[in-house]
Amino acid sequence: MSRCLGERAIDHVVLERGLVANSWRRERWDSLRLLTPNWQSRLPGFGYEGNNPDGYRTMPEVIAFIERYAKVIDAPIRTGTKVNSVRQDDAGYVVEADRGTWRCRSVVLATGACNIPSVPDVAEAVPSAIETVTSIDYRNPDQLQAGGVLVVGASATGLQLANEIHRSGRPVTLAVGEHIRAPRVYRGKDIQWWMDAAGILDERYDAIDDINRARRVPSLQLVGSDRRTTLDLNALNAIGVRLVGRFAGLRGSTALFSGGLRNLCALSDLKMNRLLKAVDEWASQNDLDRHLEPPSRLPPTEVDVEPPLQMDLLAVGIRSIVWATGYRPDYSWLHVPVLDRKGQIRHDGGVGATPGLYVMGLQFLRRRKSALIDGAGDDACDLANHLLRYLNGAGATG
Prior knowledge:
Blueprint: H1 2-7, E1 14-15, H2 22-26, H3 59-72, E2 77-78, E3 83-89, E4 92-97, E5 100-104, E6 107-109, E7 116-117, E8 131-134, E9 148-152, H4 156-167, E10 172-175, E11 180-181, E12 185-186, E13 189-190, H5 191-197, H6 211-214, E14 220-221, H7 233-239, E15 242-244, E16 247-251, E17 254-257, H8 261-285, E18 310-312, E19 318-323, E20 327-328, E21 334-335, E22 347-348, E23 351-352, E24 357-359, H9 373-391
Parallel strand pairs: 1-2, 3-21, 6-24, 8-19, 9-10, 9-19, 10-15, 11-14
Antiparallel strand pairs: 3-4, 4-5, 7-20, 12-13, 16-17, 17-18, 22-23
């Protein structure tokens, strides 16, 4: 957004609570890699410059990439500046931070959607003998107690943590909720290549029948690795991770699980195969079949005929619970009437419900790829154009 505002000669400042790429430095586990290939890290006027376009960046590499971009565009960043309050006044907005106060006609909220772990209320009832950690605080298996681990959540984060923790020698049980299965590589190409080339990632928010539902869809079950491995429930099952249904509650030390595991997995397989069918049709329409591997499908997800509906965690040796149950934004500092009853910002493709307020970095903000690094540039360009018209008094919408 800073790059796009600068191109339009819009005076601005970027306030950052820590260092550049702060969340990548402080809120990610040690072994994490980007789920998108290196070539897909495309920002306005900037992209991947190495010799491994199909690799996946480590966290230090992500930090270095973002740091370099900030320097290349000469962004007017004030680091170490924590915003405590944003409110309206007659001229626009007042932004109060621990290092000063800014008055402006427009504000762009680029704090993202992953500020606070979304943990079920029942977490407070976990017995004291079992430690709990969220995915935002997890760094590596060594911080966990010896003994079994219950990982709750089976999207990309949950799968990766379950895999890493189990391979550390701690037996893992994975509580599986709604998820979307996907092969890492399909017909010789990364699944992200297919979604990019076929235009799936560019689908717009205003062309989707139920955008609220689309914005709640879990992330694809993907992992970035040198071997371009597909990580799914079958892969975890093969190394001994125990699969149970969605975490439904606690009675003392007994965890309760939903009986819908088989249905959830069947639905996930169905969605994956629909995606692959769309990819195959696009490849045929564009005369690519003769250059590619033939179409194929992964085996169905294997699930026990009768997975357990309850489990005494202490009795089976579980000593840690890792909550990989997603995140929610933190708008405790936002004192502008734009939040709905669920605490989410009311916006139309990133254009806030109050004039001059914009938001970046949310799931499916303007395009299916909005929450990816690759989606930020297109969204920023659109919103910067709208912002410029607003400052010029055009009262633009959409």
